[in-house]
Fold this protein.
Amino acid sequence: MYETLTYTGGIYKHEEITELIEDLGGFVLQENISQMDLVLTLAVPIEDVEKVEEKAKQLLGKVKIAPMAGTEIAIVSPTLARQHLPHSACDISEYLRRYGAKDNMIGLQRGAGKGISRISEDEKKLIEEHDLAVFALGSFRECILNKSHLFEDIEIPVIVTGAPQINVEDIHGADAYVGGLGRIPRRLKRGENIRALKELVRVAEGILDQKRVDMSDDPPIVPSILVKTEIENQVPAMKQVYSPAPVVSQLDGVRVKLNYEKYHDEIADVKVNDKRLLDISEIRKSMMYDYILVKLLPETSII
């Protein structure tokens, strides 16, 4: 079992922390460098967490548990227009990143309007490529209740956010609802806003933890973080991807930021524990920029 952590510190001697992680049999999930600051999202065996904390202390860095590391979350707004992409959606996205999540902002093409809002099949498929979806809706109870058709048949867990307090049982298709996060024309920096964001994190962590528990009954034959590492090591083209997260870990797979038509055969031939990735996963074209989506098959489905 692995614990996911976030290390924050300076770039001076940062190779010492990465070498320790490798020696412990752990993985660096994501690395972000901003001027002289470094943020690492990592996974290490649970029994070795104290060793990482000791090394971080030596390097004057900080380590904290990142329960959402290794997950990809969709933050969905009715449209990308300024009146429907509230500050709350941007702040929700930024806040979830602090806890290790990799999130993507998605604006629906025709999501505006209480009576005319729609979601296309392609948009649904794109959202369902993620581990969790957060629908950032507005400030009116009736509007939120009348937009349940946007997410009622989406197959991944859905959290809805809005300004009023609403019982989740009243919102058809939502797994959870978090109030206090409607359309606010400013940054969410006040006390009540921070409390609402913390509640969102608590709810999201609970849903993702339950999803992990459900997967443990029939888990993938290999962990997704191992697949991520092997792809980065065995596919030379990954060195030409300048995204801060060229391979994004999910609970049940990875998103590879390479063109599907050009590289899917190479991805299929990657060896993980002496097994070809093609034999232990479903490899298909992502709805996002024609990337490659790898979904690991459960153990019982592999002969």
